[in-house]
Every structure is written in structure tokens, then in C-alpha cells.
Design brief:
The chain is an alpha+beta fold. It contains 13 helices and 18 strands. The chain folds into 2 domains: about 200 residues, Thermophilic metalloprotease (M29) (Thermophilic metalloprotease-like), CATH 3.40.1830.10; about 220 residues, no CATH class.
Length: about 425
Amino acid sequence: MKAESRFFAVGEKLNVKEKLLDMLTDKHLDAYAQVMIWALDTARGRRLRAGNLVLLQSDPAAAALAEKIYTLLLRRSLQPVVRWNPTVSMEHDFYALGEDKQLTFHPPGTKELLGALHGAIHLRAPESLTHLRDVRPERISMATLARKPLRDILDAREHRGLFGWTLAMLPTEQMALAANMDLEAYSRQIVKACYLDSDDAVKNWREVFAAISRIKRWLNGLNPKALHVVSENMDLEVSIGEQRKWVGLSGHNIPSFEVFLSPDWRGVRGVYFADQPSYRNGNLVSGVRLEFSDGRVSSAQAEQGEAFLRSQVSMDQGAAQVGEFSLTDKRFSRIDAFMANTLFDENYGGASGNCHLALGSSYVESFSGRMADLDKRRKRSLGFNESALHWDLVNTRPKVVTARLRSGKSRVIYENGEFCC
């Protein structure tokens, strides 16, 4: 039986475009498309110019939004390159049936295309979250590791200011089911979170951008040496490291309310607890408890999905090390429900905001020096982590985050779900 048929009975599969339009109106989609173009320009740091190449990569169920964005790209005199992600059935069979050479294969011209791109817009609308649950994790890891050189091409272009990317998600039945909501309620969360119910969604995002920029300037002015994070089941020390800065709402993700940095992984110690469940590669993992010693995971436990958790932590040398620490202020995020999708869950506002910690690769955007000086040797010496993995694990419980300043003083920077500035 094909993977897809486990989720849609014969004759019951809906026209996903019509279903989406029932949940998100044409006005919502127009606003979403305009926000995504704003986000891409923002991620690049400057406006796209006529003739620039933009990859528009979409899940099939996101076609209605992809069409809106495609029209806007054409009207900007840009060169859109459209790529459709595989269906649920195709993705399952790729990992389950593909030979090693197929899992690691890159089509001719891929490197050349990535090396010429000026922007990319990724649209996700997962029609299943569990279709890969019977696939051995090491097969997915093999394909992930093989794609890292492709990601490195785009990272290099982004560091030179030649490329930017953004990402968004649309509602599907399976996403709503995983989040224990009906599709209408799930869609309302997306509309609310992305300000699509506003008369001018782009204006709203510009205002949030300005507010978060003020918080980043305040945090960078404090220049903390370390953070101490205390919550129920969690007591974690995070060493910031040298030449770091806080970043956030760069345009890379819509929605995005987090403020984050990539710490010196060597100075992370203590216990981190993720109370929010996480879907990854078809596996549901919940109640994650990670203990760090000398910067590496020394113990990885989970109430559900522990074997998978451990397989991810052992993916490569850097997978057991921290690549990101993030805080979200509940005053900006209107997300107040578990969405079963990291893009939304890492930006959860709710009653107490959230923090999240990512195992795996770091973000070099957090480097405060000249990007041209950050070669591989320099990255290693500063404690920026490298890995094919990047997995965000979220804690939504009330917490206090205290910054230990380089002056020797301490200051609470986050409490009751808000920054204390």
C-alpha cells in the first residue's frame, strides 16, 4: 500500500486548492503573498532587482499561495524558478526504496542553479507528519548529510549578501489533526499569527520588525557573558562566547518573533527540558530531557520517541552540541496553541512565551565581526557548531533568564514571557 493511501481513502481526497480557499480567503492569500515578498527583500537586506533569479519551491497543497507569489515575482520583473516538492507517497518511497546512490544523488545543474540564485521562497503544506515513521532514521540522515554541500553553497552566497530566503506554511487536514484542532481553527491560528486579518499585513510586520530591532539593540548593548535559564525541570547555563550578537526577525521565517543567537557550544552545561512535542521525519518526540556536560549531550531522554531522539543526537559530531538559543516575547506573538510545526511552535507566545534550544548547526548571522573573516578555522575557534542537523526543541513553561554580564554583575533579561527592557 502506498504511503499516501494511509491518510486518504480512495475517492475521499479533496481538491487541496479549493479546500485551502475555504479556510484562507483570497484576501488572506493576497496578504500572505505580499508579506512573503517583503520577507524575502528583508532577508536579503536589500530589494531584489529586475532579472534576479528567485526559487519558488512549494508543497503541492500550497499551490494557491504559490500562484499568488508567482504573479508578484513576474510583476517585479524577476525570474521565478518553480520547483514542486514530492508528494507524501513519493517522499516515503524515496527513503524506503531508494538505493544509497539515489539517496545521495544531486541532479545535474543543481549546484549551478544554487550558485546563481538571488532568493528563495519555500512554501510548506505537509499532508502527513507520520508517513516516514517506518523508515530507518539512518537512511534519512544519509540523504541529509549528502545535501549539506548544497546548503553550504547558499550559505556562502548569503554571507556575501547575494542571496536571501524565506519560509511559510499553509494549513492542511493532517497538520490540524496532529495539533488536535479542526482545520478551521488551525487556519485561524495561521491567519492571526501572520497578521493576515489586518488591512495592511506588511505594515504590521514592519512595526513588529522595528520593535524586535529595539530589543536586539538592548541585548547587544548588555553584551552578556552567559545566560542562566531556570524553569520547571530545567536549569541550564549557556555561554555566549566571543564576537556574538543577538539576531531575529530577519525575514527568513514567517511568522517570526524570536530573538536568538548561536552560543559557544563548549560552554553549555546543565539540564534542558522541552515540554512541547516535536514532529521530525515522521516521528513524534515529546518530553525531551537533555543533560549537557562540557558542551555535549551526555544524556538524552524522552517520554516518547527516545530511540529516534538518540539517533538524531548521534547523526554526526555536531548533532550532540548546541547551535542556537532563542527567546520569544509573548507581546508580539499571537500564537497560543501547539501547531505541530516548528515554524509556528518555536514562535509560540501563549501565557509565558517560550525559549528554544537547537541541537546541531549554528547560525553565523550571530557573528558580530566581518563575515569575510569567519572561515572554518575561525568558526571552530569561536565555538560555532557545525552539523547536518538543526532541530529546535521548545519550552513554553514560565521561566527566568538571567544574564551574567562581563562586568561581573547579573541582570534578569526575560521573565513572565517578556523581555525586561
